């Protein structure tokens, strides 16, 4: 391993949202100063929102600076070959005190053409759910642009969309084009492509503190939407002290690790690995050094760190690119 690199923590980038709350502080110990904080961006290279290291001798450096200095060592040989010095993923925790807007994200081709951006394939891990909490995801039956627009104009679009009750531990994988909204009362870990392109199509006629409605992107969304029925919920095993596969797509692989003891990890250097602690606590033991983490921490393991141990008692999401 490059002696300059080690497991990296970053300062959270906190975002006020009209639908946000206080769970990021009460559940995840994030340093929020507002009662409407909706998002904690844990790991980002989105322009204007670049993560800054908070631990070790690289503290104060941005993720982009470290990638520029150590592209192969941090990203991994295969990731660097595929994406160059771009960090291809974005990691967040979200607190939805109210429903998020109904929205859709474009695919790579459309996002490149319109915004010179990646598309936005994403997944949600439900960390906590209030009673009767639900998400909106996809169409109940195969639809089309005409039916969708008619329902949108009549404010009946919810009647043609899937309304799914959720509980802690549920996972949903949303390919680009899937119409969706996180519902009120949910705390969510989100893994997605590096993109901040969202087409908002319905916002429940809400207004902000100044009485303004938020911008909608109805026309942009028309070409982006997948009008077919989609299966988004992912079932997965929960074998203790093992990497249980949840999602394996072109953009990322996510495993669930129910940790209760010690695991030896052996990587090949092709990709960085990220761990999101969604419950409990754990530590990484690397090169005879102990690194401690708790619920709400997101840690980036450089690809050059190929052998280490995980120990503790908690639930961890393990993410890399395969």
TrEMBL record:
Query: What biological-process GO terms show up in the record?
Result: carbohydrate metabolic process
Catalytic residues? 200
The record ties this protein, via CDD domains, to: cupin_PMI_type_I_N_bac
The record's annotation in InterPro entries points to: Carb_Metab_Reg_Kinase/Isom, Man6P_isomerase_Firm_short, MPI_cupin_dom, PMI_typeI_cat, RmlC-like_jellyroll, RmlC_Cupin_sf
Keyword field contains Metal-binding:
yes
* SUPFAM superfamilies documented for this protein: RmlC-like cupins (SSF51182)
Q: Which Pfam families match?
A: MPI_cupin_dom, PMI_typeI_cat
Q: Which cofactor does it need?
A: Zn(2+)
Q: How is the cofactor bound?
A: Binds 1 zinc ion per subunit.
**Which amino acid positions bind Zn(2+), per UniProt?**
105, 122, 180
Q: What keywords does the record list, in alphabetical order?
A: Isomerase, Metal-binding, Zinc
Query: Could you identify this protein by its name?
Result: Phosphohexomutase
Organism (species)? Flavobacterium luteum
């Amino acid at each position: 391993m490059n002696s300059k690199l080690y497991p990296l923590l970053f300062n959270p980038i906190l975002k006020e949202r009209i639908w946000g709350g206080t769970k990021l502080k009460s559940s995840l110990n994030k340093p929020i100063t507002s009662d409407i904080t909706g998002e904690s961006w844990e790991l980002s290279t989105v322009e204007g929102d670049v993560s800054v290291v908070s631990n070790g001798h690289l503290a104060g450096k941005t993720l982009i600076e470290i990638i520029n200095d150590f592209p192969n060592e941090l990203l991994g040989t295969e990731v660097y070959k595929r994406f160059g010095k771009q960090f291809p993923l974005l990691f967040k925790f979200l607190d939805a005190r109210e429903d998020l807007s109904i929205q859709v994200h474009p695919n790579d081709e459309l996002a490149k053409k319109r915004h010179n951006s990646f598309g936005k394939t994403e997944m949600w891990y439900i960390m906590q759910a209030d009673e009767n909490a639900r998400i909106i995801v996809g169409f109940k039956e195969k639809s089309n642009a005409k039916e969708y627009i008619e329902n949108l104009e009549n404010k009946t679009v919810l009647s043609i969309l899937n309304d799914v009750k959720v509980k802690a531990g549920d996972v949903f994988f949303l390919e680009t084009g899937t119409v969706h909204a996180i519902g009120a009362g949910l705390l969510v870990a989100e893994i997605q492509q590096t993109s901040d392109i969202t087409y908002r199509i319905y916002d429940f006629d809400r207004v902000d503190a100044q009485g303004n409605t938020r911008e909608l992107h109805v026309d942009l969304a028309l070409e982006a939407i997948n009008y077919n029925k989609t299966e988004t919920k992912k079932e997965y095993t929960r074998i203790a002290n093992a990497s249980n596969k949840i999602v394996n797509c072109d953009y990322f692989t996510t495993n669930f690790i129910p940790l209760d003891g010690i695991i030896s990890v052996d990587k090949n250097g092709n990709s960085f690995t990220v761990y999101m602690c969604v419950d409990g606590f754990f530590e990484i033991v690397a090169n005879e050094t102990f690194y401690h983490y708790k619920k709400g921490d997101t840690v980036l393991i450089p690809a050059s760190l190929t052998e280490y141990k995980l120990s503790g008692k908690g639930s961890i999401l393990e993410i890399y690119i395969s």
